[in-house]
Amino acid sequence: MTPDEYFDAIDDPLFSALGLLPMEGASELTEAFSGQPIVDELQGLVLDDPDTSDHHLLLGRAPLEGCVLYLAHDGQSRVVFDSLEDFLAAAREAAEQGDDISDFHPEASPVAHDQPALSDLVHRLLDDGTLTDVVTALIPSLDLSDLALLERLATDEDFYLGEAVAIEIARRPGQALAPIARMCATHPHSQVANAGRRAVEKVEKSA
Q1: 44 φψ region: left (φ > 0), alpha (ψ -120 to 50), beta (else)
Q2: What is the pTM of this model?
Q3: For a Cys-Cys bond, which of 82, 107, 109, 196 suits 140, CB 3.0-4.6 Å?
């Protein structure tokens, strides 16, 4: 589905309560978000304005081009839909049931199709040193196979990165992740250590 097809599809009274934006409105709100790191770095187009501080973004930067990210003001920002089609299907279900789109977010983010490219992007963002908020939003899209990257994240001075890694390991445990989970469990910051201990427990139960 192209963006033009998507904007044509949402021109329907069914979606009126969801705050989905027409093309012009999406462009205007995106411009207003200029300077927001996730919007800028991932080339996000703001798709909705549901009268909250949370928004869905259509991403334009590879390797997540075409995915829809949930930009959460007070919570975890992450990719929640693999495509505009999936976002539109969730919006339709939400509208029909009188719920919010966020009620239909998957528990786990879809992993990026090009993992090497995503790893490279995360490394470049980490090298920058000022974009850890963007990295935190990308961690749920990793397939957790790049152990060197996970170790770098787990030991970064920004403890939110280590916590995010531990949370994902707990969500998707595997024996290969045991060393990273233990690393998080012994982290000096309590938030990482607590999440790490949960990850270790999940990994041990997955054996």
Answers
A1: beta
A2: 0.93
A3: 109
